Predict the 3D structure of the following.
Amino acid sequence: MKKLAILLLFAAVCGSAMAQRVHRSEFSLYDTRDDSVKKNHANTVNHIPYAPQLLGNVDNVDMYGSNITVPASWNDYNVYLHLENTHSAYDIVVNGSVVASCEDAHTPADYFISPYLRQGENQVALLLRQTFAPLLSEGTTPSRNAKLSGCYIFAQHRASVYDYDAAIVARDGKLHLELDIITGNDFNYEETVQVGYDIYTPERKLVDYAVREVTVPGRSRDTLKVRIDLGAELRYLWSAAKPQLYRTTLYVKRNGKPFEYLPVAIGAGRTTFADGKIYRNDKPLTIKAVAYNANSSKAQTRKDIVALKSKGYNTLRPDAPQPLWFYDICDEVGIYVIEQVAVNATSKGDNRAIGGTPSNDPQLVDEYLSRTKSMYYRTRNHPCIIAYSLCGKESGNGYCLYKSYQWLKSVELSRPVLCTSAAGEWNTDDIGL
């Protein structure tokens, strides 16, 4: 056991090519429609819980490992490792080679690990270690979930749905579905992908369904745009007061049979920012916010949120990205969320010299941008999210947060972007909090 741990540590020191961290909506796939509705992975063949065991500790590095068997059928699939609740920075080691490193212990992440796997038995290990940027997490609340809980490995067909953007907008007295289905083809040759979808109103009335084809060149992606007039159904607009959700299921057909079901909940309407005010469905919002991070269970988190809402709070302010089910609960219960990057650099926040605060250290700009992108892409489709925060309140300001603000504003064209430690500088959309 100790020898194996030493070998893993040696691999970490040597390093190798880095696995791709996937910046897209966080989602899980199911083999049947019924399981997708229930969000039950028990019968999903290509979804494997990842629960590595502690192998040992060398030089304050905890080493966890688990063997997985890659079947021959996965030759036509992309394999991803989903990690959350790591409680520390980490390196991913696959078959003795370090394939990825991450300093952010708080944001769940998916990694594309197919290139490092072989058919048959594989060892997927984690080295949980100290971060090179400890100041960034000084004020972040540690996860209340057990270490490495919620992790899994899943395989997705190489010609399939890669990502999606889903919105229902109100225009001219009607609701309109704007669904962009990003199809991916990782084969070396052209593939035709058959994508099916259906959409139901909050009252479970079927609105539309279809199967559409898109031909995607090898090693590339294409976007299938679905535009549907949903009619004069403005009573279905989503808000904290009326959290009504349209339910959509995406799936792929192959050889005439559907597989890889992906459930998507969509809140009609939108959140906008103008003239220093935040609006939901063109009505100004009065924010009553409270700091809250997910509890250790879904059931208790739901109880907590319902209790906070009963006390008059309408907005939650977690201090880092939360598990995906946290946002599902907020969508369903009806409470707004100001989503925050995992940056809480409380030390030296008032030192604006270059490097005086981490937020003004150019050497950390890539880390700030990585955390910002990871936060944004995984949950951007949730209607509960009404604003984004670049950092905690006492994180200082400077070059790293300037660049984070510019990047986030370039991709998020509607909701406000906050930098609560901007101290009067330009890189914040002040909503009066």
Residues 159-266 form a domain with the Immunoglobulin-like fold (CATH 2.60.40.10). The mean pLDDT is 94.
